[in-house]
Design goal:
4 helices; 50% helix; binds zinc ion
């Protein structure tokens, strides 16, 4: 990956990362890393097929999120933005699974995070089309 291509993709990913971080996790301190090689998890294992990886310290509302731009260069903007949202959503649910002794804890987290991203996309698409459902009237308006 040439520097020009890397820098253009990095700017795009960083734009989404900063924007979505402010919307979803305004109280968190998150550092974003942009790699050109396979990501490693906190145990040092290579994540050859992962375009994003989040390491969080939920008790301090702090996280480090890494993106593999080599993999992301092969994907659409929408897929890459969803990856950004997906990694940020890991922070939202981190507290629920950290320290979980169940072997399927990670799988549950992945499923919940994926559904949250789908829900956020539905809201965004509805807002763009002006088709968000109207809120129910409050008691004072009835
Ligand atoms: Zn995930």
């Amino acid at each position: 990956m040439k520097d020009k291509e890397y820098n253009a993709l990095r700017r795009k990913i960083d734009h989404w990362a900063v924007r979505w971080k402010e919307e979803l996790l305004p109280g968190w301190e998150i550092i974003f890393h942009y790699e050109r090689e396979p990501l490693q998890n906190i145990e040092g294992n290579l994540l050859e097929r992962s375009s994003g990886y989040t390491h969080f310290l939920w008790e301090y509302r702090s996280a480090s999120i890494s993106f593999n731009l080599l993999l992301m260069a092969e994907r659409t903007d929408r897929q890459n933005e969803n990856t950004v949202i997906h990694e940020l959503c890991h922070c939202l649910v981190a507290e629920l699974v950290t320290g979980d002794e169940r072997p399927d804890g990670e799988a549950h987290m992945e499923r919940v995070v994926t559904d949250i991203v789908t829900s956020l996309n539905w809201v965004r698409d509805a807002a763009i089309k002006g088709k968000l459902p109207k809120p129910l009237p409050s008691k004072s308006e009835q």
